[in-house]
Amino acid sequence: MTNQNVVVPESMEIAVVAVANPAPMCPYLQPKGGGAAAGGGRGGFGIRRKCLPQLDLSENGGSGRINVWIETMEASSPKNKSAATLGVSTSITGPHEHSNWMLSHPSALSMFDEITKASIGKQVVMFLDYDGTLSPIVDDPDRAFMSDAMRDAVRDVARYFPTAIVSGRCRNKVYSFVRLAELYYAGSHGMDIKVPAKGPSLKKPNGKAVLFQPASKFLPMIDKVYRTLLEATKSTPGAKVENNKFCVSVHFRCVDEKRWRALADRVKSVLKEYPKLRLTPGRKVLEIRPIIKWDKGRAMEFLLKSLGFADCKDVLPVYIGDDLTDEDAFKVLRNRGQGFGILVSKIPKETSASYSLQEPSEVMDFLQRLVEWKRLTLKSCTMV
Question: Residue 241 in contact with residue 229, Cβ under 8 Å?
């Protein structure tokens, strides 16, 4: 297969080969309370969000935004486990508020029958984040290994449903963790997309497969920023800078809290020279990305289009993720009015997801149940 780098226009007007879609067996069944179409909420319960889509490092010399940054870093520290993750503030302090949140975002396991009922007559397409979803969050990001049991669960899911990994990691690195060639991979928050060698693929008129990298022109800049940040943060014990090809991650999970402000100042001093890059928060990580209209939500739409499901009502996308960057995909599903977002989190937080799961072990349980349900459904069809 020959790959070509293609800069995808912001309008996403791209030519793809559509595959035939099966006729629907029944109309789409909305989940009770509106589900994704209603923004993921079921009981109208919300948590105030402190929006940090981009940290403006130039405002007031950067001091105002850096203070907010420090506050959110502190909120996600290990000793504040009840607080929200980076970029989200929460007023949830007691069991009553937690119960209300669970009414709005019930467990995908307890509501499994509702989810499968909505998938009747639909082609389920699975989108999975990696860190914190398929593997636990660990101190060393290079050792975020998934278990063999999880790999088997993902492999089984891919046998029945088109399945993609959508990660902030470098595509090659996340592939080295997952090691399943039959999956779709979207690395660098969707800025590096590759389809499997077998199955439907994106093709140009000459019949050659295409590797989509909408931020290719930023590669030299990203590489320069990575090397500069390595030098700027080397005096901060525990700080780790990761080159994810089309973005750079500054991990502070192992940094002493007293050193966070100094680390923030160092990163700030580097990024102020690069106005075409933006800084977004994640779970114990600061993500540096190009300022282009591309994210995990657009990557999911792109992959759906590649499968022939761009404007199709006979598809049920399911996206499972744990981080703030996954909210872009949850919002797309909410706006489409079809499919489900599932947030992986032990703590309540504002989200556009319809359902929740607490940790990767529950994600594996959900995937295994989905496979078993599909097997039983196919078996019953052959007996009719």
Answer: yes
